[in-house]
Each structure stands twice: as structure tokens, then as C-alpha cells.
Amino acid sequence: MQRSWIILLTTCIFFLPIYIFATPILRMFGEDEAIAVHAGRFSLYMLEYWNLMFLIIMVGLLKNAQIAVAAISICINLHGWEIMIFIGFNAAISVRVSNELGARRTRAAKFSVLIVPLTTGLIGLIFFTTMMALRKVYAIPFTNNPEVVRVVAHLILVFCSTLLSDSVGPVVAGVAVGAGCPALVAYINLGCYYVVGIPLGYLLAFKLDLGVEVVINL
């Protein structure tokens, strides 16, 4: 765990300037100005998902780390399946809103903004209900350790709450991107993850000894 922590942290530090300064780097190589600007904004989105690596590192420092890492890895595996659906809706609503606003059809844009979150919220509710029903057996296909199965079942309520919130969050971000505010969305997300989320999670998990339940809810 310590070796992987060093490798991940070193890799992140090495690549971080490339993401942050993507636009000037592309300009230096003679890239088209519009492409350089948009690519620089898009690179900020990649930084949003590095927080998952930090979460694994934090969990690895908790008490009974092997069980905790195994449990949260199983939960994040499902999160990856689910988030792919909502990233698809994120892209769809972004394109739809931008097209409708570009055509000056504001009522159609508002209709899309209403329908898509309701649809993804319903999907999130289905995920929530299904996982709550399967909470005691969900981890069995992934592990033969009964302690890991027990911990996953204990975490399911907190984890399902994040699934439900994630069903709407990416869609709202997609609306903002479609409305022409991609950089604002990226900065808000980065601030929420790295300025608020991870430090708060560290404080609650380690200083207040609330454990993996706090980390998984970031």
C-alpha cells in the first residue's frame, strides 16, 4: 500500500502541470487557438476523477486497511458502472441545451432541463432500491472474505445515497456546460473535491475516527 501510494502521488505530481497548463503547452506546439482553449478546459475535468485515487489512499491508512480497501473498491466498482450512464446523459443534455439555445428555442431547452434530470433521478432511484435489496449479497461475487461482505453491507446505505446524488449531479453540470460555462463547472467541482471534500473527509475519518463511511460519501 505504501509503495503504491508513493507511485500514485509521484505520477499525479508529475502530470499535474500538464493538465493545468494544457492550453499554453498546446499553443507552444502550434495548435489551433480554439482547440487549445477547449482542450485546456476539458483537461480540468480529468482532474476531477483523480479524487478517487486519493480516496483509496485515505482508506488504506485507516484501521484494518485491507478490509476497508477491499470494501470500498467493490463499492467504487459499481459506482463506475453507474456513472457511465450519467456521463452519457451529461453529454446528451450538454449538446441538446447548446443546440436549443443556439437556435433560440429557450422553451425546448427548459423542457430538456426538466425531463433529463427526472429521468436520471428515476434511474438513480432504481439503483438505490436494487442495491438496498441486495446489500447482504452484493459483495459475494467479488470476494470470498465474509468480513468484506459484512462491511460492504454496512456501507450500502451511505454508498447508495451517493449513487442517488450522482444521478443528478452530472446532468446539472451538463446543463451548465451546454449553457456555455464549462470552465466554471470544472472549477466548482475541483473546489468541492479538493478544497472541501478531501480535507473534510480526512478530518472526519481520522481526527474524529468516523472511518470508511465518511470517505465513501465524498
UniProtKB/TrEMBL annotation:
It comes from the Eukaryota. The chain crosses the membrane at residues 6-30, 42-61, 67-93, 113-134, 154-177, 184-205. The keyword Lyase does not apply. Keywords: Membrane, Transmembrane, Transmembrane helix. Pfam families: MatE (PF01554). Coiled coil: none annotated. This is Protein TRANSPARENT TESTA 12. Belongs to the multi antimicrobial extrusion (MATE) (TC 2.A.66.1) family.
